Design the sequence.
């Protein structure tokens, strides 16, 4: 009888490894149920000041200034959708870079690294459970958003969902490269926070990028996420898009291939470097 | 001969307690400076967090800036960037204290050093207090850099007295850090307390008017806001920084801040004593 184990890597064994990593994270997450509750309310809390700030800018309850930039005066639906997509963006950033830091602190990174599982697969595995949690919490968040702020998508949900997929896959490339930086610098919180915050800000999570100061608009336009957020909003809320929708979707598909290749290349080089230096287990 | 023995940590005394406090402060400072990313945090956070709200405000104002006039009228602010920066910086202060001071004992627990430190014959509150010293210094640097960056990059001018700004910040220290002490003690008992940080900072974010005047809140929310010291801190800071207010004008904010400060310091200290006793009785100190 032939045994297929992780020490004889094949597709089945790799998938089993992915499942085990995701299951472990799933168990750890639900071990602290308060975190799940906070995942739902956290984004709502973040956008509440914007809701009241929007009132301070509105005339007769209409955010006319905002409508002039985006094509919709429903700024809360605009922001809620941006927040949901950002949740997924953060999941990839946190899921990989932060998981590496946690493993370093807990002293299990080296032993995990010794298992016959490709390192990139370990990184991907660390995001699976969070992606599922994010999908569940985002759905609940949108339901609460609909009740509190009147979130009402009027466009094509499936087209928007399919458009978001290449963006998310491309983000994995980002995440690989970022995990490499964490391996080098060994401190993840500030890096994760600052970089995800900057990307989030410049790609237009909370506002249309057209409203950025002129000198910042090029920064927004070189971020593929800008087109992802813009296309999904265009499809779901029928807002004005920066480029025609087919062009934005083409950019996202190119971004997906380039970023995954580039991120994997950077990670493999850095990982080899830290193993050569013997700093893998240091924190 | 016995009288000439040096007073060491093994023989508790005021000097030994101070030495322990100093040792904790020095250790925390070394850890703080050991990771170079603190430089990024110190220079980038003061700008990027308020920027998100400032840029949203620009978008809400519209291409012709028509919404800005409405905002200025409702808030009574002369500078919308300064108005938002004060609110968001106070929020960041409370947030950083909750993560830094609030999780100081928990981090020791996770590193496995809390039990061994607890066994040493030192004043145990010094572990918490010692963590606060470098934190206050780093926050002072944080505020100075915020003022400098927004002054240079966005032309935000503090028209008020620097002394009044400092006085308002000093009056807020007991409540901000007292809450941190109480929180740090609870974290040892409840372990994974991220959700509590999110709850407290969320309350500050929603109720204290970080980007809007609390008069825009519904009545029941305004009633809650009055029980949060950060509401008075944000209002007082805005008055001190932009309205040239003196002590008399600031008194309605300073008095509640000091009262809340006394309350939170007492709560913080006694929560620590309670936790310390409970953790020893249940053996929870080393669990994580």
Sequence:
């Amino acid at each position: 009888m032939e045994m297929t184990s992780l020490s004889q890597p094949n597709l089945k064994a790799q998938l089993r490894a992915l499942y085990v990593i995701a299951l472990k994270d799933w168990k750890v997450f639900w071990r602290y149920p308060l975190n799940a509750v906070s995942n739902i309310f956290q984004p709502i809390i973040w956008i509440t000041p914007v809701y009241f700030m929007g009132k301070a800018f509105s005339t007769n309850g209409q955010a006319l200034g905002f409508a002039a930039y985006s094509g919709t005066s429903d700024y809360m639906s605009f922001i809620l959708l941006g927040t949901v997509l950002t949740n997924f963006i953060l999941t990839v950033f946190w899921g990989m870079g932060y998981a590496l830091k946690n493993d370093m602190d807990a002293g299990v990174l080296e032993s995990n690294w010794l298992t016959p599982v490709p390192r990139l697969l370990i990184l991907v595995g660390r995001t699976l459970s969070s992606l599922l949690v994010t999908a569940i919490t985002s759905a609940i968040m949108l339901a609460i958003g609909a009740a509190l702020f009147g979130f009402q998508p009027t466009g094509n949900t499936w087209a928007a969902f399919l458009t978001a997929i290449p963006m998310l896959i491309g983000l994995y490339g980002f995440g690989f490269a970022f995990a490499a930086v964490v391996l080098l610098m060994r401190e993840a919180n500030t890096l994760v926070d600052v970089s995800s915050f900057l990307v989030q800000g410049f790609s237009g999570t909370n506002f249309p990028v057209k409203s950025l100061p002129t000198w910042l608009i090029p920064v927004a336009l070189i971020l593929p996420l800008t087109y992802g957020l813009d296309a999904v909003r265009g499809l779901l809320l029928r807002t004005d898009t920066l480029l025609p929708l087919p062009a934005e979707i083409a950019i996202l598909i190119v971004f997906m291939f380039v970023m995954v290749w580039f991120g994997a290349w950077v990670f493999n080089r850095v990982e080899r470097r830290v193993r050569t230096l013997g700093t893998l287990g240091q924190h | 001969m016995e009288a000439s023995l040096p007073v060491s940590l093994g023989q508790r005394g005021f000097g030994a307690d101070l030495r322990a406090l100093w040792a904790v402060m020095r250790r925390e400072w070394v850890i703080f400076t050991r990771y170079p990313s603190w430089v990024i945090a110190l220079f980038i956070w003061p700008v990027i967090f308020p920027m998100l709200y400032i840029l949203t405000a620009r978008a809400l104002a519209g291409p012709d800036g028509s919404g800005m006039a409405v905002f200025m009228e409702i808030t009574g602010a002369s500078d919308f960037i300064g108005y938002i920066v004060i609110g968001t910086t106070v929020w960041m202060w409370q947030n950083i204290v909750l993560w830094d001071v609030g999780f100081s004992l928990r981090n020791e627990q996770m590193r496995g050093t809390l039990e061994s430190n607890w066994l040493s014959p030192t004043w145990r509150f010094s572990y918490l207090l010692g963590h606060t010293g470098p934190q206050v210094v780093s926050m002072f640097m944080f505020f100075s850099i915020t003022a400098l960056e927004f002054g240079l990059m966005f032309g935000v001018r503090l028209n008020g007295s620097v002394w009044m700004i400092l006085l308002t910040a000093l009056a807020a220290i007991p409540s901000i850090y007292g809450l941190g002490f109480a929180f740090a003690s609870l974290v040892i008992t409840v372990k994974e307390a991220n959700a509590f940080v999110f709850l407290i900072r969320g309350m500050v974010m929603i109720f204290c008017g970080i980007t809007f005047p609390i008069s825009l809140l519904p009545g029941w929310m305004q009633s809650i806001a009055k029980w949060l010291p950060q509401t008075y801190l944000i209002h007082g800071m805005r008055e001190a920084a932009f309205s040239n207010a003196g002590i008399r004008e600031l008194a309605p904010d300073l008095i509640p801040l000091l009262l809340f400060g006394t309350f939170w310091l007492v709560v913080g200290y006694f929560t620590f004593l309670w936790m310390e006793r409970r953790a020893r009785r249940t053996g929870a100190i080393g669990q994580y």
About this structure: The radius of gyration of chain B is 21 Å. Chain B touches chain A through 49 residues (CB under 8 Å). Residues 185 and 272 of chain B are 5 Å apart (CA to CA).
